[in-house]
Specification:
The chain is mainly alpha-helical and about 170 residues long. The chain has 9 helices and no strands. This is AcrR family transcriptional regulator.
Length: about 170
């Protein structure tokens, strides 16, 4: 999978043929297709790995804190940090999703955010606001960051994370 990620990130989706991926991985096309069955299966594995790894990375950080406010900060900072630390993989996934007609079922982060925001409102940590709009706004910032980080490798990620956290801290506070 690392060979696929590196090739798509470096040379683009169209250049990442199964032959070239196999060569990059120092294996044969037959061996590659034995494990993945098709190019579509390779693409799906790359996409799923990013989301699975991201979820694991974020979950440990989010569950390590108790308050809704701290969980929201952990959600934002861990999501953005994971993106920054995995830009090649994120970029490869963008290219796969942008270039294939295949439907790859990817997790929707909005339901969990709605639950977190609703919990924060119910326990008095967050002000009154439309939970759906706030959850979609948070996701929009994270999703935009995934492309912005790849396009700007010298970006001050810590500053970006701090600013995004401050924006949503103020937006959720009375």
């Amino acid at each position: 999978m690392a060979a696929t990620i590196a090739m798509i990130d470096r040379e683009g989706y169209a250049a990442a043929t199964t032959e070239r991926i196999a060569k990059q991985a120092e294996t044969s096309k037959g061996t590659l297709l034995y494990h993945f069955k098709s190019r579509e299966a390779i693409d799906e594995a790359v996409v799923r790995a990013l989301y699975d790894n991201g979820a694991a990375y974020m979950t440990t950080r989010i569950t390590a804190v108790a308050s809704s406010r701290d969980r929201l900060r952990a959600y934002l900072s861990s999501n953005l940090r994971f993106i920054a630390e995995n830009t090649a993989h994120v970029n490869a996934v963008h290219r796969i999703l942008d270039n294939t007609g295949a439907h790859i079922d990817i997790p929707d982060g909005v339901p969990g955010l709605r639950q977190l925001l609703t919990s924060g409102q119910l326990n008095g940590e967050f002000d009154s606001f439309d939970v759906e709009v706030m959850a979609l706004s948070i996701r929009a910032v994270v999703d935009a960051a995934s492309r912005h980080f790849a396009a700007n490798p010298n970006l001050d990620v810590d500053h970006y994370i701090d600013q995004a956290s401050r924006i949503f801290d103020k937006a959720t506070t009375s």
